[in-house]
Every structure is written in structure tokens, then in C-alpha cells.
Amino acid sequence: MTSSVSIIFPVFNNWELTRTCLESIKKLNYAKKKVEIIVVDNHSLDNTANLVKKNFPHVKLIRLKNNLGFARAVNIGAESSLADFLFITNNDVTFDSGFLNNLINFARSDPKIGVCGGKVVTFKNGKKYPDGAANISRLTSRIIRLDNYQKTQGVDYIAGTGILVKKKIFKLLEGFDESFPFYFEDLDFCLRVKSLGLRVVYFPKALMYHRQSSTASKMPSGWLNDVWYEGKARIVAKHFPYWSKPLALFFQLLFCLYVFFTKRQNRFDSVFKALKKTLAHKTRGPQLAKRRQLTQKQILKYYGQGKVFTARNSAPFQQVILKDFYQLLTTNYPTKRWHIMEFGVGHGWNLPLMVKYFGRITAVDIAPLAILESKEFGFKHVSFKLLTKNKLPFKDASFDLIVTTEVLEHVPDLTKTVEELKRITKTGSYILVSVPVYWNLRGLSKKLMEARLGTGTWEPARSHPGGFERFLTPPKIMEYFKDFKIIKTCGADYGTAWSPPAIPVYPKSWAPFFEVTLGKIPLVKYFGMNFYFLAKKT
């Protein structure tokens, strides 16, 4: 089925660019009835809004009484959208005829994709070069262009020139952060999408063209420097780990020094203005430091309103480890006849592997949006249940296997949750558990910092405002299952466990050894980032 999409872009003056963009949209080979065009006029001082209404009557035109900026204009446009997807862009772009069809088909191909964007051919000073996506260094805060713009790949962000996102994800994250003055609202949004556990992906087979900085080129250079550094400072404050924030500032000052001596430009004023504004700025939303005060009822309310969306572990190594456990069971039992439950299905990323080994699966979660995401896989023998109470809505001894990965550290009453899981497990059947543990550098650092500065202060972009992240150890979590027989244990992800955040300590080719193989070694298995065990009810 063809998905509906709203193409949203703000305009401020410049009718010719707007007309060219709208003409290009008309030529897209996507089902016309599924495309909604929303133009948000940021109080143009020329006749742009009237000309849009006259020449393109099918366009939904929203007139603003003041110029509210790009982020606010996009959010207003998104509020009026009736579509499944939002495509956010500018008026200084044109498209290849197959652009939208290619991009939306790609977005639908994988439920893990939160944001995607195509290849942008940018024209500047008579030259053209590929653009559309980039990464950001967590050490220096430098924006890093891709090495290869011909390759589909995960990135830190898609440029606001062309962002495709599901409307429900945009709504869940409350849209763009309007505190960003001119730049970086796209980077901020994509990093927030990634903090949900979703992917941000660059897809070069969808092609569009951009006349770079047609708006920015008309702005004073001093003002552009001010808003650039203010935006970057807010990115660092909002998304960088605490240990890297002073390093990012240090390298930024070094860069300003370099520019001062090589180009005779003074950017120090802009940097210090940005720091002053950022320090005075209060972040919207629930404060992570107050997370300890949340009650269980409040947590359920957060999830029920879709304000919190805890993503389960989607790392490739987890599927390798789960496969080992599943094969162990399949070797000894007719698992295709089993009825199993995944407790905390999240985005449903464990389901594709589960359906290969087990006959009937019940997937449960307390987040309505998690259930909706998981249903998109369309598996016939998987049913879904939304949990709203403490007691699981199943009879005693209902399941042959319960799988719960990266969930038990979040539940407010761990003892009661474990007892409920035991109750619905058949005698002679199994529970498979994984949790993050803290006998490692990362875990101990987190524990020490949060003990002094408050819950959620370690890697805030990865924290869950509605969860209680316990400091578990392998013996402590297994103690909850002392009346079960432990069949198999293993550890995982030693690179993350023993390195500072965002600093890789080994080449990607070594990942299988550091993420999986080390976890099979006795004693060493207890010191990874994650701990897994299979327990049998006797």
C-alpha cells in the first residue's frame, strides 16, 4: 500500500525559487492523491504567498503573521499534516522524478529507520558537489562529511534540506527544537531520533538538487557566525557526554585561533556569546535529574501518552547471542510448538529471529507506540498485548519460554515483575534474560557520576526519562532467579564496557571478538556491558 506523505517547507519571499520547487514536486512520479504539499509562509514581504495561492491552488498555504524561523514554521506545518510521513525541505530545491518513490520505499523497508534522506547535489560558486548527510565528532564537535556519498549508510544526521520521517516519530519527539536560532535543528532532531534506538540513514538512490544558502547568503556574516556557534554550543550541551564537553570547547577555541591567524577573522566573540546564551538556556521537558521521584503510575502515564519510548537493544551482537540460546533449545525441544512471550518488545527488532525458531509468540509492552512499531513487521503468528497494570494478564503456567532483553533494569518494582514472569512460566520451561551490568569502566563511571550529580547525568542522550535504570551485577540479577536452574550464561560488548563513550578502541573487523567471543570465557563473562542467562523453572 502506498504511504501518504506531506511535503513541508517554509518560505520567506523569493517567489521564483518557490515556483521552481513546486513545479518540480508536480513532476514526481508518486501517487498524486497520496501527496500533500504544505507551504508555510514566514510573513513574506513580497507577493510570494498570494502567488502560491493563485498558481498552485492545491497547495495547503499557512500564512504566519511574523517570521518565526525555520524550526517553528516546520512544526506548524507538521501539526496540520494528515499523512503517514513528513518530508521536510526548503524552497531552493528540485527533485529527480523518482526521488520520493525511492526514498519512501527505502524508509518502509526497515522498521529500524527513524529518519532517512537522499543524495543532495549542491550548487555553489558554479560548482556542484554531493551533500545531504554528515556526522559529528563527539571529541571536537567538528561536522564531518561522508567519505563516500555513493553508499547507503548510517549517519549522525540528515540535513534539513530533505528529511523524511514518520509523522508519529516527529510528533513523539515534539518536532524540531525551536530554541535553535537558524542552524542545527536538523542535527538535534536526528540525534534525538537516534537516542530512541532508531537509525538515521543516508540513501543515495533518491536524488535531489539544492542551491545552497540562498537564504543564508543574504544574512550578515557576523550574525551567521553568532547563530552557528550558538547552535553548535547547544548541540554539545544537549547531546555530548559530560567528559567530552570541555574537550569540544577547547578544540573549538583552537579552531577560532587558527581562523584568526589564517583568515584574519575574529570568531571568539561569537563563541563566547554562544556559551553565555547556552548556559542561560533551560532545556524543555522532564528533567532527567528528577527521575528518581517518578512513581510507577507516572511511568505508565508517560508511556501511555507516547512521551517516553524506550528502545530495546538492537545491536547486531545481541542477535548472534540470542541465536545461540535459541539453537540450544531447538536442539533439545520441538520449539515450533512452543508458545513464547517477549516481555518488552520495543520496536520488535528481536521478532524476525524469534519467528524462525518458535511457533507462537506473544509480544507485550507498556508503550502503545512500541506495539504499533512492532506490528509493522506483519508476522502472522505474533500477537500483541498492551500492558496497563502491574499484574500480567495471563494465566499461571502459560508460556514455554519468556524472553526479556534490556528491560528489567527499567521496571519500578523488579521483585514483583520477576515473580509475575515466574508465575506465567510453565514448570520445566525457561526464562531468557539480558541486562546491562556495572562491573566495568563504563558502568562504574556512570554509577560514580550519578551518585554525585544525579540520575541521568551520565550520557543523557541515552537515558530514559521514564525508567529506573538499576545498577545490576550478574550475581544480583541471578539472585532473583535462585529457585530456577541456571542453564547457560554469557557476557557481551566489552568494547563499550571498557572504553570512554564515543571513542572506539578497536577496528570494526574485531567487533565479533570484543562483542561476543570474550563473553564466552569463564569469569570474563561477568565484566562486559551486558550479561545474558537462560534459567529453567524446576
UniProtKB/TrEMBL annotation:
One MF term in the entry's GO annotations: glycosyltransferase activity
Cited Pfam families: Glycos_transf_2, Methyltransf_11
Record's keyword terms, sorted: Glycosyltransferase, Transferase
UniProt keyword Ribonucleoprotein, yes or no: no
Start and end residues of each Glycosyltransferase 2-like domain: 6-170
Location of the Methyltransferase type domain: 342-432
Origin: domain of life: Bacteria
Family, per entry: Belongs to the glycosyltransferase 2 family.
Name of the protein in its database record: Glycosyltransferase 2-like domain-containing protein
